[in-house]
Amino acid sequence: MIGVAFVGLAAALAAGPTPAPRIASAWVDGTDLVLGLADGRRLTGAALVGAVLALRDEHGVRRTMKVEAVVRDPADPTGAVHLYRLTAPDAAGSWRPVCTPGPDGLQMAIPQPGPAGELAVWCTSGALGKCVRWGYHPWRRFAGGASLAPYHQACVHMARADYCGDGRPTTTEGRLIQMQDAAGVRAWPDRARDFSFEAAWNEDGAVCVARVRVPAKASLAGLERECPRLAGRVGAACTPESSSRFGRPLIFNRSHQANGP
User: Fold this and answer.
1) Measured CA distances, 57 to 60, 61, 119, 139, 212 (Å)
2) What pLDDT, in 10s, does the model give residues 41-70?
3) 7, pLDDT greater than 60
4) Contact at 8 Å (CB) between 50 and 88?
5) Sheet containing 23-29: which strands, arranged edge to edge?
6) How far apart are the first and last CA of the chain?
7) In terms of pTM, does the model score above 0.85?
8) Phi, psi at residue 216, to the nearest 5°?
9) Residue 20: exposed, middle, or buried by beta-carbon count in 10 A (0-12, 13-18, 19+)?
10) Contacts of 94 (CB under 8 A, 6+ apart)
11) Residue 145 pLDDT more than 60?
12) 199: closest CA among 220, 217, 226?
């Protein structure tokens, strides 16, 4: 079980006319947000609805957020992922969704430990949240103890087409991809028509690149200039079979050839 302490929590629970209980601590277990109250109780799941918390968004900005709903992710076959509908006050004081709609229309978030130890939320419309929903759970460990976190990091680079691994995305919303990994989380789908191999990925970015996803945003020649480690690792030199010569690939992806320029 993974529990991460939340430092500097500012929160209050709606409790009708009675005083709101004081929150002594908070942590996340997988995707389950847990609040430890000063009276010894623990609140999680649906019991959190109505809680008003100070949380970090994906950009590291602390915002006041209210938990409106907690549901199991309908796309997660393991049942391990919970999604949170969060709202935040706008300039006029009205509560608005924190997350923008994803491809499935959901405006939900996933709580996770932030880089500084404080709790953060990952929207399901962004790469961080998408990769959790695709099965790359950063809190999970294999039977031998190895963490799945590097696979989640590789997936984030892949989702963003961040070939250099420096946080510069080169994709656009709606680009279709397929993936397979070395961990057995996902396998190529049966239907590969109009898809072709794009790149191999690890936690540092692309291991090699056969073709770019959006030619208007990147080129193989440009990648070799901007990312010296990719020199000689692009085009025909990059295949799923050859990628292990250049590093330790964790995830492979195909992209749709009919996505346009």
Assistant:
1) 5, 5, 9, 19, 30
2) 999 999 999 999 999 998 889 999 999 999
3) no
4) no
5) 23-29, 32-37, 42-44
6) 45
7) yes
8) -70, -15
9) middle
10) none
11) yes
12) 220
The answer to whether 34 and 42 have CB atoms below 8 angstroms apart is yes
Confidence of residue 257 (pLDDT cuts 50, 70, 90): confident
The pair of three-digit structure tokens given for residue 247, joined into one six-digit string: 């590093």
Task: State the Cα–Cα distance between residues 258 and 17, nearest whole angstrom.
Answer: 59
* Angular region, 210: left φ>0, alpha ψ -120 to 50, beta rest: alpha
What are the tokens at 18?
């009675």
Q: Residue 67, exposed/middle/buried by CB under 10 A (0-12, 13-18, 19+)?
A: buried
What's the average model confidence in pLDDT over 150-156?
98
CB 260 within 8 A of CB 212: no
- Biggest CA pair distance of the chain: 69
pLDDT of 261 reads: 58
What length does the chain have? 261
pLDDT digits (tens, 9 = 90+) for 82-122: 999 999 999 999 999 999 998 889 999 999 988 777 889 99
